[in-house]
Amino acid sequence: MNWDQISGQWKQVKGKVKVQWGKLTDDDLDVLDGQRDQLVGRIQERYGVAKEEAERQVDTWSRDLRH
Length: 67
Description:
Layout: H1 3-8, H2 10-20, H3 26-32, H4 36-47, H5 51-64
């Protein structure tokens, strides 16, 4: 699934994001509103990983995302 699709279906995808990154709050997910760069930033903050690692995680997750 590409990021345009994820962003367009954010309300449906939020639960899958929460399963993958459980430290993200519902408020985090509402603020992110499907924006990839903000998701990467929140993962960095909550998990203490480098930007490159957070981007890798998001890319892997989005590539493997299924409906």
